[in-house]
Every structure is written in C-alpha cells, then in structure tokens.
Amino acid sequence: MKDFKLTVNSIGMLIQALWKLDLTKAYRVNVVLWREKRSMNQNAFQHVIYSEIAKFLMKNGRPDWNEKKVKFNMKNNFLGWVETECVDVFTGEVITKETLKESSSLDVGEAYFYTTQLLDWCVGMDIDIKIPEKCDYRALRDEQNV
C-alpha cells in the first residue's frame, strides 16, 4: 500500500488492507498531512522553463546544456537528493542510495515553491520567462498576492 489518503471515511479500507499484510514482518509507516500532488499544468510549465534556460545557455556558449541537463542540474540545486531503498536483484540485499528528488513527488505547494526558485534563478541570469495567463502557477501566485 502506498500513498493512501486516510480520512474518517477510509479507515475501514485501511484496516482491511492491513489484514492482508504478512503480519510476521515489520513495516514502516509514515503518517503525514495529505496534500494534493502538483498538477500536470505545473509540470508542463516547469518543462517550458527548462527549455527556455537550455535555449539561453546554448545561445551563450554552452552547447551541451540541453533541456535534460538543465532539468537534472536545476533539480540537483533546488530539490536535492533523497535516500531510496534499492534491492540487488541477484542477492536480494536491500541497500540505500542517494537519488535525485523527483519533481513528480512534489505536492502543489512544493511545486509552486520550486517553480518560483526556477523563475528567480532565471531573473538573475536575465532569462525572460513568460508566465501564461491560464496557468496553475499564475493562479497560485495571484491567490497569494490578494
């Protein structure tokens, strides 16, 4: 079971799912306040930003900075790394490795903050990013500025 939204109405489903587990084993449970995941609209806007940064860098003497490299390095600088459990498929050994935090794991607020960091970085580099009129990021920004 992963990413279960616990409410008063869903407690029964949680209990049913728990009874299906192998009760001879121990499990890690992490209870955090539920927040909605970022929207696909937020994801699309982040990719527009990566693309604009890549175009700017390529035009200014960095031909190897394609969108993929920009995305990796922006996530490296602003999202950071998290510990991830991996299983060696030959030995079954569980090991922990540092992996780049996935932007897809961000909730709406975290995605807004990350996008703001990207845009602030662009301002510092004199990269002009147009925020579309119909965009979740703009709506959240406008909502906060009311």
Can you walk me through this structure?
By secondary structure, the protein is mainly alpha-helical. Helices cover 46% and strands 10% of the residues. Helix 2 (40-59) runs parallel beside helix 4 (108-124). The longest helix is centred in the middle third of the chain and has 20 residues, at 40-59. The mean pLDDT is 88.
Secondary-structure topology with pairs:
Blueprint: H1 11-19, H2 40-59, H3 67-78, E1 81-87, E2 94-100, H4 108-124, H5 136-144
Antiparallel strand pairs: 1-2
Helix pairs in contact: 2-3, 2-4
Give the class from helix and strand content and strand pairing: mainly alpha
How large is the count of helical segments? 5
**Gyration radius over CA:** 20 Å
Structural shape: flat
- End-to-end separation in angstroms reads 39 Å
Q: Which segments are poorly predicted (pLDDT under 50) over 5 or more consecutive residues?
A: none
Beta-strand content: 5-15%
The helix content is: 40-55%
According to DSSP, the number of beta strands is: 2
State the strand order across the main sheet.
1-2
The average pLDDT is: 88
The helix/strand order is: HHHEEHH
Largest sheet: 2 strands, antiparallel
